[in-house]
Specification:
273 residues, alpha/beta, 2 domains, eight-stranded mixed beta sheet, two-stranded antiparallel ribbon
């Protein structure tokens, strides 16, 4: 099977933050950034939380909760996020910021534009860093737009969750591997017990694989289960990418990309055999 892109990777907000120092985990970001190369597409969460922590450090107080605070934090944090990636990605590669919203994936013309942009990055020795454009995305307006789209098309993508964005990008560019980095080693049958990690979800074809993914989602039910909702969402979003032949890996960000791709560490692997 021919793939257009080697890797689409995504790192979650909590995997980017050093909880002890309440700031970016620069050691982790530096290590991962140095592994990025042309043919890799990187989706990075974290702008809103990084912006919140940076604002508190500089201003000495936290903004009142609400939509305005979220967008203000996102605008502040996105600049720091991109500055950090530029600092640590190999200097011989360009770094390109790509901020997306739901309409980039729900509109076929915009979707094709994004695809061409991403594929040109590989040809031009550039690393695309993608994030959702929280700073200009107003939630009520977004809900109205999505509701209107739902009346005119069968499938609507929200893209507020970067796991969904990563899966959509992997499908768009026909990636060989979709790597979802988190603060845990993978999907568990019991999140409280690390020994219950699900190391493989596979199927002989797309239909069997999707059925098997659905069967494992039962382990992600229940709001009281720590990490359950995130795990369930990851499995749901991984379905389409895995069904098209993309290998999906859900792994801990404490490991290097090389270690994960080589199968040297425990993670959850979702694929067609």
């Amino acid at each position: 099977m021919k793939f257009d892109v080697e890797l689409v990777g995504k790192i979650g907000s909590m995997a980017l933050i050093d909880k002890k120092d309440n700031m970016i985990d620069y050691t982790r970001v530096a290590r991962l950034s140095r592994e990025l190369k042309p043919g890799y597409i990187w989706i990075s969460s974290g702008a809103t939380e990084i912006g919140r922590l940076d604002f508190m450090m500089r201003a000495g107080y936290e903004l009142p909760e609400g939509e305005d605070a979220k967008t203000d934090y996102a605008a502040q944090g996105q600049a720091i996020l991109m500055q950090t990636y530029r600092q640590y990605v190999d200097s011989k590669y360009s770094v390109r910021q790509i901020l997306v919203e739901h309409h980039h994936f729900n509109d076929p013309v915009k979707r094709e534009h994004i695809k061409r942009l991403l594929l040109r990055c590989r040809e031009q020795n550039a690393i695309p860093i993608i994030n959702y454009n929280d700073a200009v995305s107003e939630s009520e307006n977004r809900r109205m737009e999505l509701a209107a789209l739902a009346k005119s098309q069968a499938e609507v993508h929200e893209c507020v969750d970067n796991d969904e964005t990563a899966a959509l990008v992997a499908c768009l560019v026909h990636a060989e591997t979709l790597l979802l980095l988190t603060s845990v080693d993978g999907i568990y049958t019991d999140p409280a017990d690390p020994s219950t990690i699900i190391e493989e979800i596979a199927g002989k074809d797309a239909y069997e694989l999707v059925d098997n993914i659905e069967s494992y989602k039962k382990y992600c039910e229940g709001a009281s289960r720590k990490g359950a909702n995130g795990a369930k969402a990851k499995l749901e979003y991984a379905k389409q990418a895995a069904a098209q032949g993309t290998r999906v890996l859900i792994a801990n960000a404490k490991y290097s990309i090389r270690e994960i791709l080589a199968g040297e560490v425990r993670c959850t692997k979702i694929h067609i055999r």
